[in-house]
Write a structure and sequence with these properties.
The protein has strands at residues 3-7, 11-12, 18-25, 35-41, 48-54, 59-61, 69-74, 79-84, 93-101, 104-108, 112-116. By secondary structure, it is an all-beta fold. The radius of gyration is 13 Å and the shape is globular.
């Protein structure tokens, strides 16, 4: 059974960098053909896809967030990390990590609330 767990600060100040880590157990982040995603849900809004890092290590980002987003991985720890720079209160959301396999979101983390506030 694959499990994903988000971790990171729950409060970030405006203009700073939001950094979250997703720790994966029960499956390797280098296994083909899986893609490891970050998704968020602002309060009162729908889900917004942020980007992914694939099994090969290649990342792809939402065009609307691309200029501020970086997703990397540590294969020795089976983790992947989201960094979102220059945050504003509009980046306040519940952040999820999730796996895509066979074109489906098949495993999700429980989500972590991140608030951007001074």
């Amino acid at each position: 059974q694959v499990q994903l767990q988000e971790s990171g600060p729950d409060l970030v100040k405006p203009s700073q960098t939001l950094s979250l880590t997703c720790t994966v157990s029960g499956g390797s982040i280098t296994a083909n053909p899986y893609y490891w995603n970050w998704i968020r849900q602002p309060p009162g809004k729908g889900l917004e896809w942020i980007g992914y890092i694939g099994y090969s290590g290649i990342s792809y980002y939402s065009p609307s967030l691309k200029s501020r987003t970086s997703i990397s991985r540590d294969t020795s720890k089976n983790q992947f990390t989201l960094q979102l720079t220059s945050v504003t209160p509009e980046d306040t959301a519940v952040y999820f990590c999730a796996r895509v396999g066979n074109w489906l979101y098949d495993y999700w983390g429980q989500g972590t609330q991140v608030t951007v506030s001074s």
